[in-house]
Amino acid sequence: MLEADLNQVLAIERDSFPTPWAREAFLGQIRSPEAWAFALIDGRRRDRAVIGYVCFWQDQNRLHLLNLCLARPYRRQGLAQGLLGFVTGLARQRGLSGIDLEVRQGNLAALRLYRSAGFIEAGVRPGYYSDTGQDALLMTLGLESSQKAVDSDSSER
Q1: Are 79 and 69 in contact (CB under 8 A)?
Q2: Can you tell me the distance from the alpha carbon of 31 to that of 17, in angstroms, rounded to the nearest whole number?
């Protein structure tokens, strides 16, 4: 994600969430050496059209997914699964043990996405979302077994 992408990112963010991230939150993601922010660009267009994004950071040996979103016209096309697969692949490449996230208890589309990717519920943060008082579900995906398989394959060579 580039700073030049932020107007498009913010438009998607405002259209998608009751309490959208501010420009400064995205700038922090872009500028921090511990965080990552990636924009999904529609390659069929000549302009740099941002159609989605994902933000995350690494905490010791785990990745924490902070924000994953697609513009409305691009939803239900498998692109969110692609972004999540990108994040999971990156975590595996870095040898991380898992991925954690919080998701609104009422965000059924996101829950379906995360569950289909193998995430399991690990707890609840009551009243986590101050705008609605809604609880956040803590979800986690373990990657240790895949890393052990990679390690054992390399030790046989």
Answers
A1: no
A2: 23
